[in-house]
Design a protein that fits this description.
The chain is of the alpha+beta class. It has helices at residues 2-18, 27-35, 92-126, 142-170, 309-318, 343-354, and strands at residues 179-186, 189-193, 201-204, 235-238, 242-249, 254-258, 263-267, 273-278, 283-289, 301-307. The protein has 6 helices and 10 strands; from the N terminus they run ααααββββββββββαα. The strands form 2 sheets. The chain has a 5-stranded mixed sheet with strand order 3-2-1-5-8, with no helix packed on it. A 5-stranded mixed sheet has the order 4-10-9-6-7. The two termini are 22 Å apart. The structure holds copper (II) ion. Copper (II) ion binds next to loops.
């Protein structure tokens, strides 16, 4: 939270300084939100990160801050009205899981359900009172008991083999050369860092509907994506390159989930969770926070643009980042909440000083500011309702 506030205030200043007024970006929307931050009541982060020197991408096809050039493909990376089943998968684990769901689990469940239903019908008919007035006194049948014990065991073992392999694959560490994406959950938006690429930061807020935005604030258009899923800043990831996803949170537990990637990873304050995946197809993929995290839990979507590596490099440079030298670890240090000398630490110290009563353990002191839905500035939209 402290870091969010620090960024909010910094972002307001940097956003104004870095962008000319005529730039068609989402900055106008950020300004009023950032201005509310000093009061400690803004839940909405700046749409432009403080570490971003230029918000305008160099390549026109990556117009992340203006009208997006990449639009969603129907049925890909998003839910579709009237359809059921899983979204088409674009990662190896996703494809395998999708196959396992459709080819193993659903048929197994269907066969068992139909079999049990048929048995019920059969006993109801065959052993009805009219047909068998004298009830059977049979209480044991060893042969049948062995079958109904062994059959479920065999079925479960057959399911467990691919299932355990999939579970293992989902927690396979990323190989060297992976692009690291750090997703940080906040009430109620995501911030993203690219530690291997110069440590720039992208903040993604949900785009509100036309009727819900304040004057001058950017509203969602169909080009941005579906309602409740479109974000002001999309994150960009390369296709065919392993991604190391690291999640954490600044306030409460969130969960970074993109169905088309077969990824759902909890973002827990004070912890780093890690997984890896490789996106196989370019496209626009949407997801949502998937851990109940407060009043606006349903309003912190995820939008990922998967592009060829060269395009990703262009986007990184446009964001003020760098591409790492192959084989050489990044030496960039990104100030983290709680780190010595960081703005967050200074702010936390000030909060601690103001706190009443004994403070035994400073490091475990909860942030003094609350982010309750009730403390939103008036006119911040009705997203929380
Ligand atoms: Cu959340």
């Amino acid at each position: 939270m402290a870091a969010g506030l620090a960024l909010a205030s910094l972002g307001g200043v940097a956003g104004h300084a870095a962008q000319p007024a005529s730039t068609p970006t989402s900055t106008p929307a950020a300004a009023p939100q950032a201005a509310a931050a000093p009061g400690g009541v803004s839940n909405t982060a700046p749409t432009t990160a403080a570490a971003t020197p230029t918000a305008n991408p160099s390549s026109p096809e990556l117009a992340m801050d203006g009208a997006p050039a990449m639009t969603a493909t129907p049925m890909i990376g998003q839910p579709t009205n009237g359809l059921y089943g899983l979204q088409p998968q674009v990662t190896k684990n996703g494809v395998f899981a999708h196959w396992m769901h459709n080819s193993i689990l659903v048929p197994t469940i269907t066969i068992i359900s139909l079999f049990v239903l048929a048995l019920l019908f059969w006993v109801s008919f065959r052993y009805r009172k009219a047909r068998s007035p004298v009830a059977s006194k049979t209480s044991h049948n060893t042969f049948i008991e062995i079958i109904w014990t062994l059959a479920p065991v065999v079925i479960l073992v057959l399911i467990a083999v691919p299932s355990i392999g999939l579970l293992q694959a989902q927690f396979k560490p990323a190989p060297s050369g992976a692009v690291t994406l750090k997703a940080i959950g906040n009430q109620w938006y995501w911030t993203y860092q690219y530690p291997d690429n110069g440590g720039f930061e992208v903040t993604a807020n949900m785009l509100k509907e036309k009727g819900d935005v304040a004057a001058g604030e950017r509203a969602r258009t169909d080009a941005d994506g579906p309602k409740l899923l479109a974000t002001d800043n999309r994150i960009v990831l390369p296709v065919g390159v392993p991604i190391r996803l690291i999640t954490t949170a600044n306030d409460v537990i969130h969960s970074w989930a993109v169905p088309a990637f077969w990824i759902k990873l909890d973002a827990i304050p004070g912890r780093l969770n890690e997984t890896s995946f490789t996106i196989d197809k370019p496209g626009l993929y949407f997801g949502q926070c998937s851990e109940l995290c407060g009043a606006r839990h349903g309003y912190m979507p995820i939008a990922v643009e998967a592009v060829p590596p060269a395009q990703f490099a262009a986007w990184v440079r446009a964001k003020g980042g760098t591409m790492p030298t192959p084989g050489k670890a990044s030496d960039k240090v990104i100030p983290q909440p709680g780190a010595d000398g960081s703005a967050a630490k200074v702010e936390e110290a000030a909060e601690t000083a103001n706190a009443t009563g004994p403070v035994e353990n400073v490091t475990t002191t909860a942030p003094a500011t609350t982010q309750g839905a009730t403390s939103n500035p008036a006119g911040a939209g009705n997203a929380g309702q």
